[in-house]
């Protein structure tokens, strides 16, 4: 029974300690989260035509492929 009392005393002591004395794991890293660094493809005014072509192709393939598959099955 004393094992349970010792464990409960330890947990009570942990709850009584102020939050300022407890160690907190912190990450000291800073990354710039801008559109140029967070997106996996080049963008901006210099790449506008290529980006528009890529997005249009992506949606055309994604929406057109099921239509072609249904046509082929019929």
Key terms for this structure?
transit peptide; mainly alpha; 74 residues; COX7C/Cox8_sf; single chain
Number of strands: 0
Shape: elongated
Low-confidence stretches: none
Class per helix and strand makeup: mainly alpha
Work out the helix count: 3
Mean pLDDT, all residues: 77
Question: In which range does the helix fraction lie?
Answer: 55-70%
Global Rg: 29 Å
SSE run: HHH
CA(first)-CA(last) distance: 75 Å
Q: What fraction of the residues are assigned to beta strands by DSSP? A: under 5%
Q: Characterize the largest beta sheet: strand count, sense, and whether it forms a barrel.
A: none
List the quaternary state of the chains.
single chain
Describe this structure in words.
The protein is mainly α and 74 residues long. It has a domain at 42-74. 61% of the residues lie in helices and 0% in strands. It contains 3 helices and no strands. It has helices spanning 2-16, 35-38, 48-73. The longest helix is centred in the C-terminal third of the chain and has 26 residues, at 48-73. The N and C termini lie far apart (75 Å). 0% of the residues are buried. The mean pLDDT is 77.
Q: Strands, helices and their partners?
A:
Blueprint: H1 2-16, H2 35-38, H3 48-73
Describe the structure concisely for a colleague.
The chain has helices spanning 2-16, 35-38, 48-73. It is mainly alpha-helical and 74 residues long.
């Amino acid at each position: 029974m004393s094992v349970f009392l010792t464990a409960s005393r330890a947990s009570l002591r942990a709850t009584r300690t102020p939050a300022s004395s407890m160690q907190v794991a912190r990450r000291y890293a800073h990354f710039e989260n801008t559109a140029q660094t967070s997106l996996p493809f080049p963008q901006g005014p210099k790449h506008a035509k290529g980006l528009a072509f890529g997005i249009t192709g992506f949606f055309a393939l994604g929406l057109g492929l099921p239509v072609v598959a249904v046509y082929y099955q019929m």
